[in-house]
Input
Amino acid sequence: MSPPIPVRRAGWHRLVSMRVLVPLLLLAYACFFGLYTLQRDMVHREQQVEEHVREDVTLRMTHLQGTLDYLLRTEQLEAVREELASLGSNPDLKVGLLLNDQHTVLASTRLALLDQPVQKAWPELTRPEAIARMKAAVARMSGDVQVSKDGSRVEGYYPIQLKPEFQGRRVGILYLQQDLSQLKAAQRYRAERSALRSSLLLVLIAGLLGLFFHFALGRRVRRLESTAHRLAAGELSARAGLRGVDELGTLGRAFDEMAERLSQEQEALLRSEASFRTLIERAPDAIFVHREQRLLFANPAAVSLLGYAREEELRGREVAELLMPGEQDPLAETSSAGAAREVRFRHRGGQQVLGEVVTFSIPFDGQPAVVSIARDVTERKQVQEKLRTTDRMVSLGTLAAGVAHELNNPISFVLSNLRFAVDELGEQTEAGKPPSAEQLEEIQQALREALEGGERMRNIVHDLRSFARREDERLGPVDIHAVLDSCASLARSAIRHRAQLVKEYGDIPRVLANESRLGQLFLNLLVNAGQAIPEGDVKGHSVRITTARAEDGWVVISVRDTGVGIPPENLQRLFKPFFTTKPVGVGTGLGLSICHGIVTAMGGRIEVSSEVGKGTTFRVFMPEADRAMQAATGTKSA
Output
């Protein structure tokens, strides 16, 4: 652990020490508190003034409303004017007006405004807001007293009945405006004096606290400071050792507890690092850490996966050197939602090692890096391939009797026609006569029909070879209709005694898939569809193959039967290995599981819907070849 570096204090450093900073902060707080108190008190006092004046104006106008209504009903206009003029003795009342329904001044606190139109007497009442408030007061026949938006005055609008109701309704407006500036100024003065007294008291308290900090707490604060520097330098055994029941003593004890906890956490961190390193080094999965396409770390399992002896032999290598040709740096691509991807690694001996890889980003040595965790699945892939081959052979075994019958018919037909041709030619040869034109035509017809039978047998054998052969796993454009025709030919014998086979092909593009694996998929679905239909009613049942375009660049292939259907409780388990609803000895329970694996491995999906007694529909969604290849090209270039 390096020794602590001494801190060289500048001259201004004393200004930010606790002994000086705390009093300065308290003084600043005193000023801020004084300003805040002044502002809050002023707002509060102004609100009180506004509320008090508004209530006073409301009471005054309510009283005036009753008085003026009475005087106007008794046609005492002069008394009305005297009543309103008497309000002029209030120095805060700016103006009082009584307007008739023609907006002419009937009475006012200012004699000069009598009998003048409101536009000339008081232009403020011609503003849209004032007109709206007067109309509202007349419509409601109730008063409205409010403080102006700028808070400088209180305005009241009260309706006044100008004539008795039996003489026709005429309503005027009583308008009072009271100034608030002087009342608010007086309240601001009181608030300023109160805030000044509070601020002076806080300044005195700040000075006393400053003296206390300067003389009583300075030494203890320096001790805490020294201990903090020692801890920062890595000396986790340092302790302040402050005593006392005051806040600084409590702080010192809390500081020592923090130092103790830091010491314990550092020990725990060191143990965790050791455990984590042991976990990484002994993990059975290969772990690669790389940045900018260059390997930074590889655990022993990764070293063993690639056939090397030491991790140093891999460190610093380009990621591309660890992969087989053709791999487009999948280790540098972040996996979505922890999904594993198949990657072909290059073994030191040159052979291929297949791994399932999950890639994600983490910090490594303080910088962003990428971690790839790979699991060797070479043997598992081989076992899966054997299971697929076994399932393919099981399907062929299921179809063997029907295929034999399919071959037996054309063989019998070919042999019969050849035997006819041989017999005809033999009779003519023994008789020493050349065959007639009619006989030659019959012999040629028999030979042509035998040739057609041979072509039929060759097509059946070709379909069997296409289905049974083992191809590589590469994907490419596939004509789905050709695959379906081949599978339908092989499955015909399993279906024809149970249902009619119907094809409804739409106009679809090629799909991105593997032809042999698609053949295995659809042959399984067709055989299962046939086995789901009981024998005896061929015309009443059907197995229907439908192709169509789906949305967003997908092709959907449906295989629908009118069989017994699948119970709802079995639909969720349908694609699980070794689950079957067939009797013992009829199925292995691997067919639909392998179908699901084939579809998902080629980037598609399979869905099933069924209703007991009405049949089952399997829908296979495969990506269009052109769109899928363009998307893959765009991803690689990005």
